[in-house]
Amino acid sequence: MNASCRKEIVYNPDKSLKLSFSNDSIIFDTVFTSLGSATHRLMVYNTTKSNLKISDIHLEGGNQSLFRINVDGEAAADIKDVEIRAGDSLFIFARVTIDPNNATNPFVVEDNLQFLTNGNEQNVKLVAWGKNAHYILADHIQAGFPDYKIIADSLQTVHWTNDLPYVVYGYAVVNSYGQLDIEPGTHIYFHKNGGLWVYANGRLQVLGTQDNPVVFQGDRLETNYADLPGQWDRIWIMEGRERQDNLIKNAIIKNGFIGVQAESFFEATKNKLQLKNVIIKNMNGAGILSRFYKIEGQNIVVANCGGYCLALTGGGNYHFTQSTLANYWPYSIRNNPAVFLNNFLPDTNNQPVPYPMHFRLDNSIIYGYNENEFGTDMVTGADSAYLLDHCLVKTRLTMDNPAYFNQIIKNKDPKFLNTVNQDYRIDSLSPAIGQGDPALSISTPFDLLGNPRNGHPDLGAYQFVPGQGKPLK
């Protein structure tokens, strides 16, 4: 046949025409313990009635990507002008090679496989595990909920140990009547938008020690992510059963959106959340956000939050002792106080519905950049009271009503050792030294670092110790 008689293939340039894919993401869920590779297949479909030309298929990471692709037998990081007839499909094989012992690898290795057709850009996400760890991968997708995986089902107690880190992709869920125990020294890394969710009547026991705290943080290990807020979502705890308290002890919670959100969702909680020797820092939103809950905190540091250190809303019952609430948020203007209390929730007409609120703060420090770091918004109609007893507070309030304030040091710089490095120990000239009431510190005879208070408590989570030693990490 004469070449001039061949029918020319016509490609439709209509920008409304798009490709379809067998998956919108490819997850290589193999956990490598040594250098290894894995391959997955992606199907690309042209479900239109027109011939299409894909002008470009490439890996966003280019030659630096740990992924490689093969498109209908052609291997490259960037492939041009791929034809796909009407109703036809093509195979793409994606391959990843991982060395889990490479210190520069993140826990989660990602890239985007990008397709450009008639000016339309479409992406398929590629995800692989970059280090040896326990990976918790969301497997429930439900409208109105974050993607999640149940890690402790009803009547099941699950133990997370410190043999390997845990990496959570999505939300890890403790179901109703389930329990999660986290052993000392365990590190939990959350991927973007991930978190830990203790559902109604579930239970959480975080059992860190002074020498081996439990750490919750984002999964990015690069130096410039070390103190960067907003890398993951939150620890979310709902109401629980009587005598089944949730406990977080000797833990560091950092670099998320909300450190701990505790709320009575379906009914008033019958248990409480106990926080002992806990640091919560670098949160975009709030360090601790509550709604009509019960919380007891001892030796707590909550620092550097874009919204509040403590936002205790909708009533509840709260008692914090020997705590440092310091907000030196450096990323933007912060209009909220470090500590905020209210005793109501809005109804469907946005009118306040009062709930009982009882709050007490003993031997503690509230300080930060703002002129007023303590605020309340209370309505009548519910039994509500609060008391700050032996505290150093930065405020514009008079704080002379003994029903609410006792032995308050106002607007005196507590002289933290280094707020830039988030070292909230106090130095030798701090006005907080020796100002605590010994009767209020009986339950906390040792500070956050294990130093004895010896019946002469300073204010805050740290007792001043001459020659305090190395800077805190």
Structural class: mainly beta
Shape: elongated
Share of residues in strands? over 45%
Given this structure, which CATH class of the largest domain is correct?
Mainly Beta
Major β-sheet annotation: 22 strands, parallel
Helical coverage, percent range: under 10%
Low-confidence stretches: none
The CATH topology label of the largest domain is: Pectate Lyase C-like
From the structure above, extract its key features.
2 domains; mainly beta; Pectate Lyase C-like; 0% helix; Immunoglobulin-like; 22-stranded parallel sheet; 473 residues; five-stranded antiparallel sheet; 49% strand; elongated
Question: Describe it for me?
Answer:
The protein has 473 residues and is mainly β. The protein has two domains: 10-129, Immunoglobulins (Immunoglobulin-like, Sandwich); 134-440, 3 Solenoid (Pectate Lyase C-like), CATH 2.160.20. It has strands spanning 20-21, 25-28, 36-45, 52-59, 67-71, 74-76, 78-84, 89-98, 108-117, 120-129, 134-137, 148-152, 157-160, 166-169, 171-174, 179-182, 187-190, 195-198, 203-207, 214-218, 234-238, 246-254, 258-263, 273-283, 286-305, 308-321, 324-327, 339-342, 344-346, 352-354, 357-368, 374-377, 384-393, 405-410, 416-418, 423-426. It has a 22-stranded parallel beta sheet that branches. A hairpin with a 5-residue loop joins strand 29 (344-346) and strand 30. The radius of gyration is 27 Å and the shape is elongated. The model has no long low-confidence stretch (mean pLDDT 95).
List the helices and strands and how they pair.
Layout: E1 20-21, E2 25-28, E3 36-45, E4 52-59, E5 67-71, E6 74-76, E7 78-84, E8 89-98, E9 108-117, E10 120-129, E11 134-137, E12 148-152, E13 157-160, E14 166-169, E15 171-174, E16 179-182, E17 187-190, E18 195-198, E19 203-207, E20 214-218, E21 234-238, E22 246-254, E23 258-263, E24 273-283, E25 286-305, E26 308-321, E27 324-327, E28 339-342, E29 344-346, E30 352-354, E31 357-368, E32 374-377, E33 384-393, E34 405-410, E35 416-418, E36 423-426
Parallel strand pairs: 2-10, 11-14, 12-15, 13-16, 14-17, 15-18, 16-19, 17-20, 18-21, 19-22, 20-22, 21-23, 22-24, 23-25, 24-25, 25-26, 25-27, 26-28, 26-31, 27-31, 28-32, 31-33, 33-34
Antiparallel strand pairs: 1-3, 3-8, 4-7, 4-9, 5-6, 5-8, 9-10, 29-30, 35-36
